[in-house]
Amino acid sequence: MNEILAKDKLGAFCRHTHIEMRGADAGPLAGLTFAAKDLYDVAGQKTGFGNPDWLRTHEPAARTAPAVQMLLDAGAFLVGKTHTEEMAWSLTGENAHYGTPVNVRAPGRVPGGSSSGSAAAVAAGLVDFALGSDTGGSVRLPASYCGILGLRPTHGRISLEGACPLAPSFDACGWFARDAVVFERVGRVLLRGAAPTRASGRLLVAQDAFAFAEEAAQTALKPALERVAAFIGAPENVTVGDESLTKWMDYFRFPQGAEAWAAHGEWITRVKPQFGPAIKGRFEWASAVDPKDVARAGTRREEITRRMDELLRDNAVLALPSAPDIALPLNSEPVVVDGLRARALPMLCIAGLARLPQVSLPLATLNGCPLGLSLIAARGNDMLLLDIARRLMS
To answer: Does the annotation count 374 as an active-site position?
Structure first.
């Protein structure tokens, strides 16, 4: 026991909620090790959710989260819990209480949040794969920053029972891996019953999403896009939004904030937890979101979903940056972090609003740091993306 804690020199694993569990003796994931973000329950253990006051005020879990149990039943070995940003609400992964996991692929830079520990552990080779979660980009952005594969699945495709929520209508169970074959094997377990699908040859390029990436990042992603096009088919430029993607970002932010406050407002008011400055500010904002903004966003979300369903018909694939740039330097000023959010969320909100699967592929570098190219497919076409990833990268 505690073997992974001795190996972990990165601050990726939780000491305060450590647990190891061997999986079944045989199964499709036998011989593989994994970690789980510390918002997934394990029976008899406390879940920390990135905050000491949450840990202090919650009892041990009565049962193991189904997503974790499925992996154990498939033979994988859970070696520990990984750090998450507080309440899973961050794009940098800098936890005010537990520190920042080291990004071995971009030293001196953040790993990305809120699935920071999971991404850092996979990138460093401490585990074969790791569970994260993605509400506004918390699998896709860390995957890009750490140079690994990451999938946000179709919303609701994988159970989030036994997982601490942020905004349930956007939350999704995702995972990371370095190896594309392992990545797909995990998907076949978690997406049990999903039929394999092949791309149709229609590759769409999201011009308005690319516009939010830094110019140098756009240039760095061109060879990656050419590689995908050679595999799928000639690219077709499209405009995703029926209005500016900054407006789409608001249609994401307002319901996210309202749902976060609905999920945790009573606990915050009663316990008065100590939050880091950024998380404190987000919950203060969430407590005052105007219901009219939420209602308007709900209407637009359904319109956006229909628009994306039409765009991605017939197994089309949409390409866009996973992130606007390489990872930020550690301890960047708040104004710099806010700038990241302003550029990242317009591209990250697309999949969340329309409940779509999105994979981040580690296909580019810039200034020696990883940069991911993302592919989005229609709802339910998760296996299509995993098939592309395996065939393109293995």
So the answer is: no
Query: Is residue 133 among the annotated active site residues?
Result: no
Is 394 an annotated catalytic residue? no
Q: Which of 115, 116, 138, 144 is catalytic?
A: 138
Please tell me the distance from the alpha carbon of residue 248 to that of residue 252, in angstroms, as a whole number. Answer: 6
Q: What is the pTM of this model?
A: 0.97
- The CA-CA-CA angle for residues 57, 59, 65, to 5°, reads 120
Per-residue pLDDT of the chain (394 residues; tens, 9 = 90+): 578 999 999 999 999 999 999 999 999 999 999 999 999 999 999 999 999 999 999 999 999 999 999 999 999 999 999 999 999 999 999 999 999 999 999 999 999 999 999 999 999 999 999 999 999 999 999 999 999 999 999 999 999 999 999 999 999 999 999 999 999 999 999 999 766 676 667 999 999 999 999 999 999 999 999 999 999 999 999 999 999 999 999 999 999 999 999 999 999 999 999 999 999 999 999 999 999 999 999 999 999 999 999 999 999 999 999 999 999 999 999 999 999 999 999 999 999 999 999 999 999 999 999 999 999 999 999 999 999 999 999 8
Please name the residues in contact with 118: beta carbons below 8 A apart, sequence gap of 6 or more.
Answer: 12, 35, 36, 37, 82, 130, 131, 132, 142, 176
Indicate which residue of 46, 81, 90, 114 is catalytic. 114
